[in-house]
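Both lines are quoted verbatim for reference:

——
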Amino acid sequence: MKDINIEKYKVTSTINLSNYETNVRLDTDDEEVKDELKKIRRKLGKLQDTLYAHGKYSVLICLQGMDTAGKDSLIREVFKDFNTRGIVVHSFKVPTSLELGHDYLWRHYIALPARGKFSVFNRTHYENVLVTRVHPAYILSENLPDVKSITDINEDFWEKRFEQIRNFEKHLSENGTIIFKFFLNLSKSEQKNRLLRRIELKEKNWKFSPGDLKERKLWNNYQECYQDAINRTSTEKAPWYIIPADHKPSARYIVAKTIYDSLKQFNDIEEPELSAKIKANLAQYKKELNEE
């Protein structure tokens, strides 16, 4: 199978989304890709156990993408071998009245992973500079002191919000959270195919919403907003990765490999050793148990 260099997908300079591929095949068939994914997710599962025992880092995985980009199935397949006590998935929908009573980062902050654990954000705090930028009227629901009308939601407003997000992620990183941000880069033609499958296949009907078609008409607006958000917020400690998403097995494998290869670079993540006193008495403890 084609070797993957995860740095190829990492955003380290200004990007133009139109230059990025949406479909990649790994020079093999789907079954081998799935087999390789199984191998790497088992390794991730073991690494999760070590991270939990180590107890000093947490991991935040952020997934963004257009409707039908494959976020849900990616979560299911990539994290299948995790201990469920060590990972929590949060799917952020339209803010509730409780959430709107706080600042826009509050609901994300309270969902952050504890030390030793993983959190996956299915849609993230970036919705607040994506869907709200395409639909600025949504900002009015936040009841902000300095926003009296849509005319107050200008470029200065967005730059301030991007700065807040960069500071939020900087704070998390400096306090032990390892951050991955994945943009699942789906083509418009493949989205059409996936929406049609939701209509044509009875078992997928429940996934379809007429609102998907309304948002699809704003495709170019969303692409511009994604591109701007990625360019303004991909940093050394909270990088974006642009993942070709038209072929789901390849996308899942690339995401899993990116997480695993990156975490393996942390040489200090290891299981704590027993104290010298306990080690010296292991034989005695074993004897006590055997003589019960």
User: Anything to note?
Assistant: Residues 30-54 form the longest helix (25 residues).
